Amino acid sequence: MLLEDPPSQLISHTIQNFNILPDKTCVSRISESLSTLQQARDLRLREAESSLKRLSRQLSTLSSQHQELVSSHSSSAHASQISKLDTQKFRVAKNVSDLEMETERLQTQLAEFNARLEELEMQGVDGEDSGTGGQLDDEVLLRLKVYRSLGIEIERDGKGDTWNKVVVRNDRRGDVHVVNVDNRKFSRFWYANYFWDNL
Question: Is the Cα dihedral 32, 38, 40, 46 positive or negative?
Fold first, then answer.
């Protein structure tokens, strides 16, 4: 009977009936795999911690730079500076406009003074006509007066013997046009149309 056999023999026979070598091999492989996996996880964890520390340092650096920029830049001071520059820009533009208007006024006044001076020179010291080449004809003097009444001043050139400079004034628009007459360039008809267009 089996019960009469010694227990060691029974255990030996029982062990021989169970083949546990494949299970031991499998458990060994699983243990190795778990160990490898744990090592890989530890390595990735260390890399993640290192990356996190590096990013934390960068964040700290950028945060301190941002704080420095914010503390050094005042939005109210910037807005005040922009407002001040805008005010200066408008003031300069107004001054330029005023100077342009004053220049036009002075040009008109200068043209009037030149016309008056020319008229006085033609009248001479005693109020009579006196020219470099003799007295002007009444017809020419009448034409000059008519032209002046229309706003057209005719002046001599630098030598004083040729009437080739015309100043056209438009008091309504405040415009003054100075034209050097040269019949070789344009015809009398062109000059007449130009003068009438600017009156």
Answer: negative
Residue 38 CA to residue 57 CA, distance in Å, equals 28
Place of tokens 């060994």: 28
Coil, strand or helix at 139: helix
DSSP symbol at 135? P
pTM, rounded to two decimals: 0.30
- CATH of range 92-197; options 2.40.50.140, 3.30.160.430, 4.10.280.10, 3.40.50.1980: 3.30.160.430
Beta strands in the chain (DSSP E): 152-156, 163-170, 175-180
Which stretch of 13-17, 64-68, 130-134, 155-159 has the lowest confidence by average pLDDT?
130-134
Q: Where are the domains of the chain?
A: 92-197
Strand order in the sheet with 163-170: 152-156, 163-170, 175-180
pLDDT digits (tens, 9 = 90+) for 125-152: 444 544 444 444 566 677 777 777 777 7
Q: Is residue 19 helix, strand or coil? A: coil
Q: What is the pLDDT of residues 26-82, one digit of tens each?
A: 999 999 999 999 999 999 999 999 999 999 999 999 999 888 887 776 677 778 888
The answer to whether the beta carbons of residues 164 and 157 sit under 8 Å apart is yes
The residues that bridge with 153 in the sheet, in sequence order, are 167
169 CB neighbour count, 10 Å cutoff: 21
